[in-house]
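In the design runs reported in the main text, the only information available to the sequence generator was the tokenized backbone. The following block is the verbatim input for one such run; it is reproduced so that readers can re-run the procedure and compare outputs position by position.
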């Protein structure tokens, strides 16, 4: 058995592009045999994962899974939209959505969840798919919601496969009313959320720092008008109400009719479903949201490829 030195680990890492700990494990599994360790990493799909992990993954899919009174949503990223249309990638996203449902949407638990068939953790299965598919793949986030009594409804925008698309919304409706009607209502409000992108359910749950910053800006703008303080106070009050209508779900105007607030939609729906309806929570995942995409000049990209870089 060859001695597993730091130099040998380093050499394997440079040769394979795999992570340091994966290289160490490969050498241990193969008693220090370098070539066997390289093959071991390749079979595990780890040989090129580290090199590919440096590339920006802002495409991919968001996916949902719902069962009974629970729902979960995940975002699985790839480098290109082409891969998102690959059935292997879609099957992976669907499977992970199901696992997310099992762990209540908890991201850390999801990564450590052991896949029944593969007998490996989700994060390990994702890493293996990097080698299989040939692109950087990252499981970026997950979330879950549930209701005590009622339904969890959903909406997928730009759906390219069942429960997979570019925008995914889950919404929980607490109610003792007719479940079929609640699901229909939930889907309509979920569609609204996908379009209007509310930042909170109600005013009380809106980030207080965001409110303060908005008030500071509005105050500065109002005082620049030179109006008396009592008028300025009323101006700020009116503008902050307008701000709430833009970012708070219950205060927003329903995009389907453009005139009724969501809280009024819920009040009116109570008559139709046969019981009071409340939104317990919602979550909206937009693919690639917040990821800084690297922009390159196309000519420069072609030149780089031609130079073999």
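Verbatim output:
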């Amino acid at each position: 058995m060859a001695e597993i030195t730091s130099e040998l680990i380093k050499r394997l890492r440079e040769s394979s592009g795999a992570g340091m700990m994966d290289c160490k494990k490969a050498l241990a599994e193969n008693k220090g045999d370098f070539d066997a360790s390289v093959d071991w990493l390749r079979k595990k799909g780890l040989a090129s994962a580290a090199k590919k992990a440096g590339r920006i993954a802002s495409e991919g899919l968001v996916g949902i899974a719902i069962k009974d009174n629970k729902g979960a949503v995940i975002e699985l990223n790839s480098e290109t939209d082409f891969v998102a249309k690959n059935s292997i990638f879609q099957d992976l996203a669907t499977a992970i959505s199901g696992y997310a449902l099992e762990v209540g949407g908890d991201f850390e638990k999801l990564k450590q969840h052991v896949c029944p068939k593969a007998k490996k953790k989700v994060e390990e299965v994702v890493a293996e798919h990097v080698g299989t598919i040939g692109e950087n793949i990252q499981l970026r986030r997950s979330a879950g919601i549930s209701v005590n009594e009622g339904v969890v409804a959903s909406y997928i925008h730009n759906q390219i496969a069942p429960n997979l698309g570019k925008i995914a919304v889950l919404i929980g409706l607490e109610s003792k009313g007719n479940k079929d009607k609640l699901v229909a209502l939930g889907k309509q409000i979920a569609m609204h959320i996908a379009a209007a992108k509310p930042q909170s359910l109600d005013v009380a749950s809106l980030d207080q720092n965001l409110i303060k910053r908005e008030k500071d800006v509005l105050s500065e703008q109002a005082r620049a008008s030179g109006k008396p303080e009592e008028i300025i106070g009323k101006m700020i009050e009116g503008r902050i109400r307008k701000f709430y209508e833009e970012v708070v779900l219950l205060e927003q105007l329903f995009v389907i009719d453009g005139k009724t607030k969501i809280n009024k939609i819920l009040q009116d729906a109570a008559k139709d479903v046969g019981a009071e309806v409340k939104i317990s929570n919602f979550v909206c995942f937009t693919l690639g949201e917040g990821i800084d995409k690297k922009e390159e000049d196309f000519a420069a990209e072609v030149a780089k490829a031609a130079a073999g870089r």
